[in-house]
Amino acid sequence: MTRMIRIFDTTLRDGEQSPGASMNVEEKLMIAKQLARLGVDIIEAGFAYSSPGDFEAVRRIALEVEGPVVCSLARARPEDITRASEALKGAPRVRIHTFLSTSDIHLKHQFRMTREEAKKRAVEMVQLARTYVDDVEFSPMDASRSDPAYLCEVIEAVIAAGAGTINIPDTVGYAVPQEFGGLIKRIKDSVPNSGQAVISVHCHNDLGLAVANSLAAVVAGAGQVECTINGIGERAGNTSLEEIVMGLRTRRDWYGADTKVVTEELSKTSRLVSKITGMVIQPNKAIVGANAFAHTSGIHQDGLLKDKTTYEIMRPESVGLEQVKLVMGKLSGRHAFRQRLEELGYKLTEDETNHAFERFKRLADQKKEIYEEDLEVIVSEEVAKMSERVVLKSFQVESGTNKTPKATVELEIDGKLVSHSGTGDGPVDAVYRTIAAMTQTKSKLLMFGVNAITGGTDAQGEVSVRLEEDGRTVSGHGADTDIITAAARAYLNALNKLAYFAAKQAEGIQKVSLI
Ligand SMILES: CC(=O)SCCNC(=O)CCNC(=O)[C@H](O)C(C)(C)COP(=O)(O)OP(=O)(O)OC[C@H]1O[C@@H](n2cnc3c(N)ncnc32)[C@H](O)[C@@H]1OP(=O)(O)O
Ligand SMILES: CC(C)C(=O)C(=O)O
Ligand SMILES: [Mg+2]
């Protein structure tokens, strides 16, 4: 049977402890509403005592967000607990989360309390919180560096005082998985009344182990995991919600546990939190990073195209993304190349594909990523080139102020070199008129456009033209760092397509559509 693990989201409290991530009331409310759509069980909306803004955020979220339990953090001090209760007053499902350290390091250096004093304070504050609300959580801060025997004593006492959830924090991210799982098991086995409370965990990522520690705790019997969207939080952050949730969902076979999170909302929630907090998501971040479902290498892309299960353990749709992204670049192979061309509407023969693929690989050696626009240029230039009647050999243009532009163009037409000169209204017009005279085309130029394709220092200028002849319209593209060369190529590209289609039509074949 699958055990359901409660998801306690603390993006709005511990997440806000990330440097620079503070959120105003409206922003917190927006995130809380999205967390409710995501289906988390508990939202820790803030720390009501810490500021009037946080008090207001807790109050409004508790009253306005439907679904999850809404919680406020409170130190083990009467003024904090009373303030939390005021913020939560009148709301339907609320929790007070109070905490006090149990480690000797904290008790000695920060709290200047004895173990007995701390235990007494913890019990009194849980009892006080219970006078306000039924649902009280207690965290023995720095639990993972506490003496386990004393920790268990405190836990037993606060459960007896009325705490329904005991949250075990690895406050400084010091624990390692087997050890942390062992601690949870020890608590479950040796605290006599542990069965009366949900055992929760709250891990920090200082050693990059927050998710691993939380999963180890689930194996050991933890029933609640505290986590944040995108793993934000104090220092290196907290357990990432999307990772723990997808870890349990994807490996339910192993953990025998799951959550009620609507995983299709994960990407949207992640983007919202990133936008509001200004905390950028690293591209290789599991589940929600830009590259999490992107496949770059030809061998992986080939496998995926044959069957998704070859290289995919989760469907991107399951986290709210539309589809697998095949990144076209120098490591891609023919299968992915052909697939991408088909998506763009090009159905090429084997020969045409191979020809275009060679040019693609050459370009990919020079550019980091190949965009759709690059592929369009490659196909329209390379495929038409295979049946090119007319090839540009060279040209010169003379132009300047007070001078009629003159072009001299050398073409190879059906294998024969031909040279001709002509004039025009500008340098491009001179080249176009000269080519038109040489090829004796009857086509009409419907459109001429210049674009800078892709950005950066490796950008090429692209010229696009549209020609019409005998009721057939074709586009032509030419790319070059010299814009007149790009214009000449675009014109010849379109003229060659007209010739290609005319020839295909004569053969009764319509093999490829290049518009
Ligand atoms: C592990 C965690 O993430 S805990 C949550 C951490 N989050 C925050 O601290 C954010 C919100 N905090 C704040 O706004 C402020 O720190 C406040 C309003 C809570 C307190 O501000 P100040 O009164 O100026 O105290 P300051 O923050 O400098 O020091 C903390 C005090 O709280 C005490 N304290 C800390 N944790 C607890 C606790 N769990 N229970 C009781 N007292 C505590 C400290 O011992 C110290 O007391 P002292 O002044 O008697 O030495
Ligand atoms: C308040 C507690 C749970 C905390 O954030 C921690 O110990 O890290
Ligand atoms: Mg924390």
TrEMBL record:
The keyword Acyltransferase applies. SUPFAM superfamilies: 2-isopropylmalate synthase LeuA, allosteric (dimerisation) domain, Aldolase. It catalyses: 3-methyl-2-oxobutanoate + acetyl-CoA + H2O = (2S)-2-isopropylmalate + CoA + H(+). GO terms for cellular component: cytoplasm. Residues 391-515 are annotated as: Regulatory domain. GO terms for molecular function: 2-isopropylmalate synthase activity; acetyl-CoA C-acetyltransferase activity; manganese ion binding. It holds the Pfam family LeuA_dimer. PROSITE patterns: AIPM_HOMOCIT_SYNTH_1, AIPM_HOMOCIT_SYNTH_2, PYR_CT. Its cofactor is Mn(2+). Mn(2+) binds at residues 14, 202, 204, 238. GO terms for biological process: L-leucine biosynthetic process. Keywords: Acyltransferase, Amino-acid biosynthesis, Branched-chain amino acid biosynthesis, Cytoplasm, Leucine biosynthesis, Manganese, Metal-binding, Transferase. Pathway: Amino-acid biosynthesis; L-leucine biosynthesis; L-leucine from 3-methyl-2-oxobutanoate: step 1/4. Residues 5-267 form the Pyruvate carboxyltransferase domain. Its EC number is 2.3.3.13. The keyword Cytoplasm applies. Homodimer. Catalyzes the condensation of the acetyl group of acetyl-CoA with 3-methyl-2-oxobutanoate (2-ketoisovalerate) to form 3-carboxy-3-hydroxy-4-methylpentanoate (2-isopropylmalate). Belongs to the alpha-IPM synthase/homocitrate synthase family. LeuA type 1 subfamily. This is 2-isopropylmalate synthase. It comes from Nitrospira defluvii. The lineage of its organism: Bacteria, Pseudomonadati, Nitrospirota, Nitrospiria, Nitrospirales. The gene is leuA.
